[in-house]
Design brief:
- The chain has 280 residues and is of the alpha+beta class.
- It is built from eight helices and 13 strands.
- Strands 2-1-3-4-5-6-7-8 form an eight-stranded mixed sheet. A five-stranded mixed sheet has the order 10-9-11-13-12, sandwiched between helices.
- β7 and β8 form a beta hairpin.
- The chain binds D-MYO-inositol-1-phosphate.
Length: 280
């Protein structure tokens, strides 16, 4: 017997509720002074501790509110469920910013449906149904539900997001990010060297979920990265898509860890050609 269609508006509300609670936890729990060198060298540093605490909060609250659903988190991995839905969470996206006290980090919560590989959801086959990205430093909450659009809530209220088709490549402000692996970084640097002379400028904010939300809001014109984890992009991808941005891999297929490019429809096409088959 087929299951009833999920209520994406209700799922979005749950995503917002739990992401706000985790956002409050990580911003309140970050000491004003973090000894960067010491915390980096210790396996139980403040970042690790807050990552774990935030994920634990998300896991506990989602288990209470949605006991049938599976859970995939950056820290604790995958826990299967029975409903076909999986919550995909990043308890602190922008961990390095968080460590250094740079005010660009977020909690990212998405819920996905994957009928093709229900035993372990895969970005190649899943559909993101709803998501929330909470930026506690800016008091901004980004949300989306499939087919219902994307919104930004801040101190001025809630507004619907619409991405334009985008400027010409030469006028585009393009965000990107770099992985942690040195070999990948060398390739990413080579792509940057080729792209930088062809665009208005590049940005490396350090938080993939916020980069995707920035595309949705027109704060940047495009964002691309290779090597992301599913929890980095699941919620932000829906925010950008529901705002009207095109989000694919570098060949026009489904975005994933192998490649993600988000931009207004016209710019997306030009940027995809510019990136070509380069290791982006
Ligand atoms: C990272 C950030 C960063 C991106 C990296 C990600 P994390 O996530 O989203 O912007 O460039 O590829 O791994 O480690 O802070 O959760």
């Amino acid at each position: 017997m087929s299951r009833p269609a999920p209520d994406v508006a209700q799922l979005r509300e749950i995503a917002v509720t739990v992401a706000l609670a985790a956002g409050e936890l990580i911003s309140a729990g970050r000491p004003n002074q973090v000894e960067v060198a010491a915390t980096k060298s210790s396996p139980t540093d403040v970042v690790t501790a807050m990552d774990t605490a935030s994920e634990q909060l998300l896991r506990t609250e989602l288990a209470r509110l949605r006991p049938e659903d599976a859970f995939l988190g950056e820290e604790g991995g995958y826990e299967p469920g029975r409903s076909g839905l999986t919550w995909v969470v990043d308890p602190i996206d922008g961990t390095v910013n968080y460590l250094y006290g740079l005010r660009a980090y977020a909690v990212s919560v998405a819920v996905v449906l994957d009928e093709e590989s229900p035993e372990r959801p895969d970005p190649a086959t899943w559909t993101v149904l709803a998501g929330a990205v909470v930026d506690p430093s800016q008091s901004e909450t980004w949300t989306a539900a499939r087919g219902l659009g994307a919104t930004l809530t801040d101190s001025r209220g809630t507004r619907r997001l619409t991405t334009s088709a985008g400027p010409r490549l030469g006028q585009a402000l393009v965000a990107t990010g770099f992985g942690y692996d040195a070999g990948r970084r060398a390739e990413q640097a080579a792509v940057v060297a080729r792209l930088l002379p062809r665009v208005r400028d590049l940005r490396r904010v350090g938080t993939a979920s916020l980069d995707l939300c920035s595309v949705a809001a027109g704060r940047v014109d495009a964002y691309y990265e290779r090597g992301l984890n599913p929890w980095d992009f699941a919620a932000g991808l829906l925010v950008a898509t529901e705002a009207g941005a095109a989000v694919t891999d570098f060949d026009g297929g489904p975005a994933g860890s192998h490649g993600l490019l988000a931009a207004g429809s016209d710019l997306h096409e030009h940027l995809r050609k510019a990136l070509g088959n380069d290791e982006a």
